[in-house]
Specification:
Length: about 325
């Protein structure tokens, strides 16, 4: 048994183990994207009831989907921990966002498969009920996201193009948030929203997360963008995707019905450059695992920073 799996389960507390399964710290950051999407399209806040139900549904959805990812992948993750590689025995890079509590608790034996499945079913059912109450289209998008997440995991050793599925899955939450407040949103807005989130997910989440595990993926024959394209091309692809996402985000701020002032678009550009482009450039130069982790962490805060910029602009506009 590895040093990682020999840690006592109770050391973290049972609740932290479940939150770790669902990567809750990351999931809380992800909630910002649907909220921002709804605000941009609606031009303001919906009714209090819709807002509360929407927040609960989004939280439940991310909690379930992240748990499903670990459940489907837990045999693969178990094999990684058994290899006793130095990088895994010592743990992930310092401050790695997806390992704040513990990484892959199911694979490390901190909980049973039955416990993990019941946790995912509970939150999945809660998310579906909330989504259906908001708009049946939201429930359909949630179901699609769960199915695509399972397919994404199963394609680990098949093709690096599975990353495209991951990008689509991440867009479904924001798209559903718009449908929750408007049953017939404009196609142009949905297309821009899709592009913004999709490019951010590929460049700032998928590639750096897979880079973090590149040695283990190579050993297991996994097909990821860093493994398939090599570190030089993968870093360039990440930089290109994030640059496109930042520019699309600026455009969204400029043309969305929320009618944000010009300083908000400038803030979106600065935030995107700082949280996404700058760390992507650092990874492009160094090709180091720690810089991939830094990119993942910094980019994870980008949607939340964009939401904050929009909220501040709304407050200043009303003064």
């Amino acid at each position: 048994m590895s040093k990682v799996t020999s840690e006592p389960t109770l050391a973290l507390g049972r609740w932290k183990i479940y939150l770790a399964l669902s990567r809750t710290p990351h999931g809380l950051l992800d909630i910002a994207t649907p909220v921002l999407a709804m605000l941009l399209w609606l031009g303001g806040f919906p009714s209090f009831g819709t807002m509360i139900l929407g927040l609960f549904t989004v939280f439940a959805g991310y909690t379930a989907v992240y748990a499903i990812n670990d459940i489907v992948d837990y045999r693969v993750d178990q094999a990684r921990f058994r290899t006793e590689r130095k990088s895994e025995v010592e743990g992930p890079s310092p401050g790695y966002l997806d390992a704040i509590f513990i990484r892959h608790p199911l694979a490390q034996g901190k909980m049973t498969l039955a416990q993990a499945v019941l946790w995912a079913i509970f939150w999945g059912a809660a998310a579906f009920a909330g989504a259906w109450s908001l708009n049946p289209v939201c429930a359909l998008l949630l179901t699609l996201g769960v199915v695509l997440e399972g397919i994404y995991c199963k394609l680990l050793t098949v093709s690096h193009l599975r990353a495209l599925i991951n990008g689509v899955v991440k867009t479904l939450g924001p798209l559903a948030a718009v449908f929750a407040v408007d049953p017939a949103p404009a196609a142009w807005f949905m297309a821009l929203l899709f592009a913004w989130v999709f490019l951010w997910e590929i460049g700032g989440q998928n590639i750096p997360a897979d880079w973090h595990d590149i040695e283990e993926d190579r050993d297991q024959g996994a097909k990821t963008i860093p493994v398939a394209l090599g570190e030089s091309k993968a870093s360039g692809f990440s930089l290109g995707c994030l640059s496109g996402s930042v520019l699309t985000g600026v455009l969204l701020f400029a043309v969305a019905p929320l009618n944000l002032p010009l300083p908000a678009s400038l803030a979106a550009l600065v935030l995107g450059a700082w949280l996404c482009v700058q760390p992507a450039l650092a990874l492009r130069r160094s090709k180091l695992r720690n810089d991939a982790s830094a990119l993942f962490n910094r980019a994870s805060y980008y949607p939340a920073a964009m939401l904050l910029a929009a909220l501040v602009s709304m407050v200043l506009r009303s003064v």
